[in-house]
Every structure is written in C-alpha cells, then in structure tokens.
Amino acid sequence: MASSYSRHVASLEENYRQAIDGEFERVLIHGGSIGYHFADDRELVFQAYGHFTHWLPVGRPQQLLLIEPGRKPVYYQVVPDDYWYEQDFPLEDEWREAFAVRQLSSLEDMPKPGKGTAWLGPGAEIARGLGIEAAACNPEGLLARLDFARAVKTPYEIEQLRLANRLAMRGHEAAHACFLADGSEFDIHLAFLQACQQLDEELPYTPIIALDEKAATLHYQHKRRRLPRPARVLLIDAGCRVNGYCSDVTRTWTRPSSHGLFKQLVAGMDRLQCELVDEVRPGQNYVELHSSALRKLAVLLLELGICQGDAEQLVDMEIPQLFMPHGVGHLLGVQVHDVGGHQRDSSGAQTPPPEHSPALRTTRDLVEDMVFTIEPGCYFIPMLLEPERGSEIGKSIDWGAVDRLYDHGGVRIEDNIRVGAETAENLTRTSAA
Ligand code: GLY
Ligand code: MN
Ligand code: MN
Predict the structure, then answer these.
(1) Taking residues 154-171, what's their average pLDDT?
(2) Average pLDDT over residues 78-96
(3) From CA 229, how far away is CA 223, in angstroms rounded?
(4) pLDDT category, 431, cuts 50, 70, 90?
(5) Residue 398: how many other CB atoms lie within 10 Å
(6) What is the SS3 assignment for 104?
(7) Cα(414) to centroid of ligand 3, in Å?
C-alpha cells in the first residue's frame, strides 16, 4: 500500500499539474542558500523555502526539485565535497520512492532545465545561470495558485502537525514545571528544548517565554537569567517542527500568589478559546471568528469588572482591541504564519483584514482540512491603554483593575485547529497524550 507520504506527493503532483496549467512546462524549486552575517563568515540559521519543504523535508541549502507533469519528480541532492562541514546526509526510503534522486557535488553540475521552466524560490542569479528568464522567476500567477492551495492539508501533513503538537505539549509540560519551581525565563527556555529534544534553530520560531509584566509584549524575545522575586505569571508561546511542519502553541500559567482577578481572566480566556474552537465549521469565514473573539472578550471584560457598560457598545468603540491588538489566528503549515492568508481565491485577489483589526493574518473562508491557530488573548499594554485614561472611551474601563493587572502582563491561549467535515479537530488538545 502506498505510504501517506507518497499519497501526499501524488496530491502535490496533481496540484502542480493544475497550477502550471499551460503557462509553463515544468517548475524548478530551490530550497535556498546559506546567508551570512555582514562582514563575517558566520552563517545565519538556514530555513528551506516553504514550497520546497512542502515536497521534501530537507533543511539543507542549495537543494533543487524539478516538477514536470507526467514525469516522476526529480530531487537534485547537492552534496559538495567539503572537509570543513559535514555535507552528506542519508535519504529516507520513501523519498527515494517518490523522487528520482540525482546526486551532484556542485550546483554548477546542474543541467539546464530548458525553455518553459518556472523558478520558485530565492536565488534569482542561480536561475539566470540556468537560462531561466527573469519573468519566469517566482511568477505571480503560479505562486498565487500554489499559495492558495497550501492552506488545505493532506492526511500526511495533518499527521505531521499532530506529531508537532504532541512534541510541543511535552515541552509545555516541562516549561510549566520549571516555572512552578521558580525557574527564570532562561531556565524555562532550556526546559522546553530539553523536553522536546530540539535545538533553537530547529524550532519554527523563537519561543516567547515571558514572566509577569513581560507577558504584555506580544513577541517578547529576551530570556532573563534572574528575577528579583518569584514570578506570578508565565506566558509561553512555543512550538516544534516535525518533518518541516510547525506547531504554534501558547499557554498562560498562574501561581497561588497571582492576583485573583488575573486567575479568573485566565480561566475565562480558556473557556472563550474553547468556545471559538466550537464555532469552527466548513464554509465559515475567518473574519467572523475574529469578530466573535472580540465580542466574547467584551463580555468577559464586563463580567470581570475590568470594563463597564454594554458589550455591544464596547465592540463599537473598539475597546476589545485595546486589550487584544492581534488577530485571533493565522494559517499554519510548513511556515508558522503560512502563506495565502488574505487570498480570496487562487487568482491572487486579496481580501484585506477589516480596518478595525489590521493585524488579522487570515480572512479566508474555512474549508475541510485547512489548519490554522485560534489564539485569543487579553493584554495590559500601557502604550495602548494609557492614552485612553482620560478619554471618552476610557470611561468604560475600570482603571483600578487595569493598574492592579499591569504587572501580570497578559494572557493568551493558542491551539492548532483542523477544520473537520462538520466541526473542528483540536490538534493541540487531542494530541497531548
Ligand atoms: N508564535 C507566533 C504566533 O502565535 O503567531
Ligand atoms: Mn504562537
Ligand atoms: Mn500563532
């Protein structure tokens, strides 16, 4: 029986056949080259181009795939002769079955692919050297068709995403335990890596590990080695990669010493997030899900006394966005913020996010086997809230509550969701075992 990977490759072959659609005869996909720090021989962390990883999880520079309808895909495995770095690496049996493998010791040995070839990926100068004209490098129409299709996953991809979630949850458990044992941001970071058995450079993104007030910086990137006192809040946003596929999971933890109101907020956010997951249906629009998150956040802020008035009025005044300036989620796959989030269709026409939520990364209609995150949050960010302290809008906010919660930073809960035939599959919570 064909493996799920070979069925995935077969389905990509069909997608590409349709996407090429008479415009080109074949596509050459370049995974990318190594970059260097300026005026230095130190390498930047390499990450292969998404459309390359979609076919083959080889995170090495200068690899090429040739896709031509009606012919077996070809993988040009470039393995330079080198005694400074190890360049060779073993190939999985199923890659050998799916591709005709041609090993080259240099890109210079790459045969010219001929007229009618489109180039996908970085390295336009390499494409030129192979006789591919500029207009055939990353052509907009072809890319729009491929980007659009990538949102919907094959069973193989869904399995990788489940595994990436299971691994991340191991890391999250270890991180939580480290927090409860008074670990610093640095200690928690290492605990996550150790439990997942991944190096920083193998992760899909730099983990956000924020204690107390630092949780209010959405993409907080530092790792403090020491804290003046035991922390009361941990917001950790960290995921793993499995065969190129990313998980992207956020949890917020409290301790007995955390403020009671903040504990209620975390419990309320967890409920709110689960309710949003329950709303997922094929045919629904993602912007609706985001609007629902803003409405639910307004209700929660009223219930907890952080705001006063009427939920509808709060939404009209865009008060929830002062506490949740981010979008409720994004497409997820071989990139953590996957491509095509604003595409209306495969032509590349865009549906931008609504004016009231410019950070929303997807406006797509949901279809079965699409995978994305749902990650509502509530932050106490002085830069957003303070300008409203004396304003008309500010009259709906209980500033005493805000002042009490500033040093708790914020809360966000993030899971990875697959659209099922009728409802959602939560890849994060069901993969935790
Ligand atoms: N990890 C970044 C995000 O949640 O989108
Ligand atoms: Mn995240
Ligand atoms: Mn995310």
Answers:
(1) 98
(2) 96
(3) 16
(4) low
(5) 14
(6) strand
(7) 7
Kindly give the number of the ligand 1 atom that is closest to the alpha carbon of 250.
Answer: 4
Q: DSSP state, 405? A: H
The β-bridge partners of 343 are: 350
Closest alpha carbon to 77 in 100, 98, 48: 100
Torsions phi, psi of 399, nearest 5? -70, -25
Among left, alpha and beta (phi > 0; psi -120 to 50; other), residue 350 is: beta
pLDDT confidence of residue 228: 84
DSSP helix/strand/coil, 171: helix
- pLDDT averaged over every residue in the chain: 97
What is the tens place of the pLDDT at every residue in 202-247?
Answer: 999 999 999 999 999 999 999 999 998 999 999 999 999 999 999 9
Cα Rg of the chain, angstroms: 24
Cα angle 76, 81, 83 (rounded to 5 degrees) comes to 140
Domains in the chain: ranges and CATH: 2-149 (3.40.350.10), 155-432 (3.90.230.10)
SS (HEC) of 7-54:
HHHHHHHHHHHHHHCCCCCEEEEECCCCCECCCCCCECCCCCCHHHHC
C-alpha–C-alpha distance, residues 30 and 355, integer Å = 36
The pTM assigned to this predicted structure is 0.97
What gap in Å lies between CA 405 and CA 407, rounded to an integer? Answer: 5
Is 22's pLDDT higher than 90? Answer: no
Other beta carbons within 10 Å of 202: 14
Contacts of 358 (CB under 8 A, 6+ apart): none
Q: How far is the CA of 71 from the centre of ligand 2 (A)?
A: 39
Report angle CA 76, 81, 86 to the nearest 5 degrees: 90
Classify each residue of 176-194 as buried b or exposed e, where b means 16 or more C-beta atoms within 10 Å of its C-beta: bebbeeebbbebbbbbbbe
Residue 21 has pLDDT above 90, yes or no: no
**Plot region of 244 (φ>0 → left; ψ -120 to 50 → alpha; else → beta):** left
* Distance from C-alpha of 325 to C-alpha of 379, rounded to nearest angstrom: 8
- Give the ligand 1 atom nearest the CA of 219: 2
Give yes or no for residue 44 having a pLDDT over 70: yes
4 alpha carbon – ligand 1 mean position (Å): 28
pLDDT in tens, 106-157: 999 999 999 999 999 999 999 999 999 999 999 999 999 999 999 999 999 9
What residues flank ligand 1, with Cβ below 6 Å?
205, 237, 248, 330, 336, 375, 414
Q: Mean of the pLDDT values across residues 331-336?
A: 98
